[in-house]
Amino acid sequence: MNTTIRGMTDSEVGLSQLLRHTVVDGQGKALGRLADVIVRLRGDDYPLLTALVVRVGSETVFVPIADVEALEPDRIELASARLDVRAFERRPGEVLLNADVLGHRLIDVDLASLVRAHDVYLTRLVHAHDVYLSPTPGVWVVTGLNVHQSHWWSSRRDKGNHPVRDWRSFEALIGHQPSVLVRTSFGKLRRLKAAQMADIIETADAKEQDELLAQVHADPEFEADVFEELEEDSLSQLLKSRSTTDVASVLSRMRADDAADAITDLPQERRREVLSLLPEPHRTKVLTLLGYHNATAGGLMGVEYLALSENATIRDALEVIRTSTTEQPEALTTIYTLDSEKRLTGAISIIRALQADADLTLREIVDPEPVHAAPEDDIIDVTTRMADFNLLTLPVLDEDGHILGIITVDDALEAALPEDWRRREAQAHSSQPPLTDED
User: Helix, strand or coil for residue 13?
Assistant: First the structure.
């Protein structure tokens, strides 16, 4: 079949077709059967075919692609009968398509899900108009995957709703640590949101989880975001398998309320060790939150919020928001005002502040009686109050009117949903239907 990829006219063949054929020499004499195809990964570029693995009797030999005369759906022919019998050792960036990819699961980055590779498609570049793909016409590269189960009555041409997808839409999980940086440098996975990566990790098996966590670990901030999105049981299991130092490193980057929840699930003997390794300001916040029951406003609140003197101007408040680049964005949707005793005196949404005269003081424009909660209020009271008043945040006050923390709408919503809400059927992020291994 011919297809056009980034302006090139190419010839394409499926790996499953090639694996059914005998390898012959230039005179048509059978030498053995194709066992695998070796490709070299090139970051975001298409992998380059470098050699064939041929089974000759009980031996496995490796044939450089330069010694291959023809690689076609019905014929694999070598230029000569001489075979390289040296032992093969995989180098960083090399992948065995049959052993590592075909029949194995990959990350569908476009749909944020794990899928299975039912076929791998190789393309021979005829016209090298785009040096991004390859500067040399005539080379073979991996360009596509079929992640839907094909049946015996299907052909490559009549897959209908199951077209071959671009290789670069996926991230292979090949379990070869030296190839991690060559594979992606975390590039493709950056297209996923933390919640999407958390969902993938939760549906992965132990080996897949190990590789996913190794890649996520390359970006500590993203790693913390992913751990915040994990279900409680999954987070607990993953933290138990890590060293105390690693756990403290992750928790130090997580929001204090999420870190407190995670520490609660640790065995008692590990809690003190982890807490002792947290940075002092973060440890203080976490310890404060650990004093509240999970099913109360105190246990639900976070300790990041924006509170300014009621004498500050709108301009002052907006400048603080502009420079608060390390704060949780949800915590900056409401500006709270304090009197000289640090007691809550008012609240104003960031939208209302943007619409107001920048030279007004906050006292002149805030709602002087903001809705609030006490730390012992239960979750139902909290969520009902936020729904009744259409609140994005709800301050939690002590008996003297000081702000202990705030509850954000995302945390309130998660608390109100059934515990198994994450196990709902994943929705496709495009017009395509959800994919499964059985498709």
Answer: strand
Cα gap 224→246, rounded to integer Å: 11
pTM strictly above 0.70? yes
CB-based contact 315:358 (threshold 8 Å): yes
**Three-state DSSP class for 368?**
coil
DSSP state of 356: S
- Token pair of 24 as six digits: 């012959």
As separate numbers, helices (DSSP H) first and strands (DSSP E) second, the chain gives 16, 20
pLDDT digits (tens, 9 = 90+) for 154-190: 444 444 456 789 998 998 887 555 455 445 545 677 7
pLDDT in tens, 294-334: 889 999 999 999 999 999 999 999 999 999 988 888 889 99
> What is the pLDDT, as a whole number, of residue 19?
92
- Please state whether beta strands 306-309 and 334-338 pair in parallel, antiparallel, or not at all (unpaired): parallel
* Residue 369 in tokens: 């009686």
Q: Mention every residue, 6+ apart, whose C-beta is less than 8 A from residue 329.
A: none
Q: What radius of gyration do the chain's Cα atoms show?
A: 29
CA gap 376, 299 in Å, rounded: 9
pLDDT in tens, 109-131: 989 999 999 999 999 887 554 44
- Burial status of residue 71 (CB atoms within 10 A of its CB: 0-12, 13-18, 19 or more): buried
Helical (H) or strand (E) element with 152 = none
Q: Are 61 and 121 in contact (CB under 8 A)?
A: no
Residue burial 347-381, b: 16+ Cβ < 10 Å; e: rest: bbbbeebeebeeeebbbebbeeebebbebebebee
Backbone angles phi, psi at 246, to 5 degrees: -65, -40
Confirm if 62 and 9 have CB atoms less than 8 A apart.
no
d(C-alpha 345, C-alpha 175), whole Å: 57
